[in-house]
Amino acid sequence: MKKILFPTDFSEVSKNAFIYALKLADAINAEIITLHVYELDSPAFLDVSIYLQDIYEYEELNDFENYKDEVPLLRNIAEENNLGHIKMRNVLIQGYLVKEVVKLSEKENIDFIVMGTKGITHLREVFLGTIATKIMNECNTTVLAIPEKCIYSPIEKILFNTRFHMDDIEPLKKVVALANVFHSHVDCLNVKPLHTVYTDDFVVDFKNVFKEHNVAFHSVLGNDIEGAILNFIDQNKIDMIAIHERHRGFFDKLFQISLSKKLTFNISIPILSVH
């Protein structure tokens, strides 16, 4: 049985993303491992050191009580969506979120990580990065990030951003395999900067490799790569965007551009990061 890791802080953003985890688990016959990681706050003053153990025990108890209350709510979400048959395990760990996600992914041989993300709400976060992008960068597992404004709908169209380099073929195979599960169409989009000469972008090789699959190939000219991708998403009613992990920082840029250019639409579809 395949495994999906679902890191959660039990926020509304996280609970919304849980529906995607359930739908994916149902489609690929997977179990879900929910993960809640909490950090113990350091006392502000040295003179309370004699009370450290009491403070830690109190905080751990509070986290456990909150966890115990919230886990049944996830099961309720599954039942309400007629997905109560999905197998679930629940893990509570004290530590640092990104580190624990990486460790558990390796230990459990996780196939997908599904998590909610609030995206970027302040310009300084562009430089600090989001938890989702840190996990995308540090995990070798495919990550499905669900922005807070996502409303679940069937995945009918998936966009794969590519430059038609040969090292994009294996990630695209993973995307096509997932598309086959959802009976989805895949659009491959290459945004070529203006005034650039391409002698061999391997697009013919891509077409040959994927000729038996429901995949279309597109190339557009423009220097605003993120903007062109956002326009393609909007005009073609794309339900999910897939990105090869080597394009580090691209996830952040998609949010950044919607801030800096004040576009009329925000990223509100799932983003798949594929290694």
TrEMBL record:
InterPro entries: Rossmann-like_a/b/a_fold, Universal_stress_UspA, UspA. Residues 1-147 form the UspA domain. It comes from the Bacteria. Keywords: ATP-binding, Nucleotide-binding. Belongs to the universal stress protein A family. PANTHER family: STRESS RESPONSE PROTEIN NHAX (PTHR46268), UNIVERSAL STRESS PROTEIN RV2623 (PTHR46268:SF27). This is Nucleotide-binding universal stress UspA family protein. It comes from Flavobacterium granuli.
